[in-house]
Amino acid sequence: MSIEPLDKIRYAVVAAVQLPNITDLEFEASLAELRDLAKTLGYQVVQTFIQKRNAFDASAYLGLGKREEIRDFVNGSAAEDSVTGLIEAVLVDHEISPSQARILENEVGCEVMDRTMVILNIFHRNARSRAARAQVEIARLSYMAPRLREMAKLAGPQGRQRSGVGGRGAGESHTELDKRKIRDHIAELQQEIAAMDVERKTQRSRRQERQGLASVALVGYTNAGKSTLMRALTGSDVLVENKLFATLDTTVRTLHPESVPRVLISDTVGFIKNLPHGLVASFKSTLDEALDAELLLHVIDASDPGFERQVQVTDEVLSEIGAQSVSRIRIFNKIDHVGDEAAQANRTAMLVSRYPDCIVMSAKRIDDVALLHKTIVAYFRKDLIEAELFLPWAAQKLRGEIFSSCEVLEERSDVEGSFLRVRGAPDALQKLTDQLNPVQ
Predict the structure, then answer these.
(1) Which in 169, 274, 396, 440 has the greatest CB count within 10 A?
(2) Percent of the chain with pLDDT over 70
(3) Among 88, 109, 112, which Cα is nearest to 98's?
């Protein structure tokens, strides 16, 4: 799976089969998504080929006539002068089998990438952390393993058999050896990820125990505006791009302005329709931020006509990783992209009527962000209790911990020390009480 530099303009065409059970709206939304994925990967899509069939062609996904039409376009006999002979790839809007890809590639005369391979290439290019790179590599190897046999067919008879003396058990084929190497490498990567997971969970537990932090995870469809919202809520300089899967690695920042209790906000990899199961599995450790969070902010693009599909996809992935029971607030973002004020008001009314507890907002509006900030803080304050602590002058070293883990409502002093009326989480107050008791 080669990755080309982004400074080169590459041209591609999109091809898809519409089955009878797929509506025109669903079909076009999926095609638009694939075109966006192609843009993220650095391709300029110059043509889309659509075929309506009762079933995919068993041999090559598309029917013979449509394959010939694409071949003519790729060869230049039917293409515009500006792209004649420049088509580098056919992007297929489904996951197809290795044999289908091989036959289709031979017939159209250029590289064929199915939807899964496009996503894998994007993930491979955008992964930054050691954990994300290992997770992507597992997904890539899992995808490539069943395709080795087809690659061997393309390579021809030479070199297919290695070692051995002939007869029964003459030796392992290249394909068998390569598959074994892949299995071994995947096992090694899984061990690395498991070790990193243990380390990350230990660090997270210590951090939250030490600082009395509450945790929030941003989840939702890719390109719904999670990174923009992350920047608005935390004041941090996180990557914001109008591309699918611009963010792959989990980013963790503190809610700003800081509150009591302090709140950690984490961004997670975006979801997408038909996200390959291998990627969901391999990115489970990244999505563990959602599992460990006390509150999920489910970010949805309010301007997308197919927002219900976004909601469904995210709900399905969260259910798959076991996060369906985590408390959740639905955030309909990008309301400022809907149209004029009247259109925004109509869309807001519709969303609130359908999702009564949702928040409709724009991450670019200061007042909207302030309201969301207030909502988050209120969520974590609902279980706080008030108590009075006595801090002797001899125990002033605990003063910083009291102020960082609790909200100090009132303070008065006498000759023996300070009396503080505080509001905080029951476990944080119990910990402080235990520390103060020995010196009282």
Answers:
(1) 274
(2) 79
(3) 112
